[in-house]
Specification:
Blueprint lengths: L13 E4 L4 E5 L5 E4 L14 H24 L7 E11 L3 E11 L5 H14 L1 H6 L4 E6 L1
Parallel strand pairs: 5-6
Antiparallel strand pairs: 1-2, 2-3, 4-5
Helix pairs in contact: 1-2
């Protein structure tokens, strides 16, 4: 069952022209990028692609969620990074799907503290909540 947002705080709006081989622009003009299939998928690779955009958004959002949880727990995450690896591939029925690995670096934290923080951030992050139960998201400590 889908979880409804109780109160929308912000709405991002972007328009695509040309699909995977065109351009995408946000309604406020702050984002305008050329999209092109990567060479691995037979494209030119002369632009970004939806998977890179998703990876960038998920990485930034997850790190913000992690920083929020860290503040609540009074844990210092200075120097931390989150790398999102988004894989695109075939799934059953001839369709396509995604999988994600979130690789989190938390220098200076004990392994058990870092693992707990990452798992709690995964419960808070909007991207994690949106993908939960839909795609595989693998949490890894660097």
């Amino acid at each position: 069952m889908a979880t409804a947002v109780e109160k929308v705080l912000y709405t991002a709006k972007a328009t695509a022209e040309g699909g995977r081989d065109g351009k995408v622009a946000s309604s406020d003009g702050k984002l305008e990028v050329i999209v092109a299939p990567p060479a691995e998928l037979g494209g030119t690779g002369n632009g970004t692609n939806p998977e890179q955009l998703f990876a960038a958004g998920y990485a930034a959002c997850f790190q913000s969620a992690m920083m929020t949880v860290a503040r609540r727990l009074r844990v210092d995450v200075t120097g931390s990074t989150v790398t999102a690896e988004v894989g695109l591939g075939a799934i059953a029925g001839g369709a396509y799907g995604l999988q994600v690995a979130l690789v989190v670096s938390l220098p200076g934290l004990e392994q058990d503290v870092a693992q707990d923080l990452v798992e709690k951030a995964h419960q808070v992050c909007p991207y994690s909540n949106a993908t939960r139960g839909n795609i595989v998201v693998d949490l890894k400590l660097a």
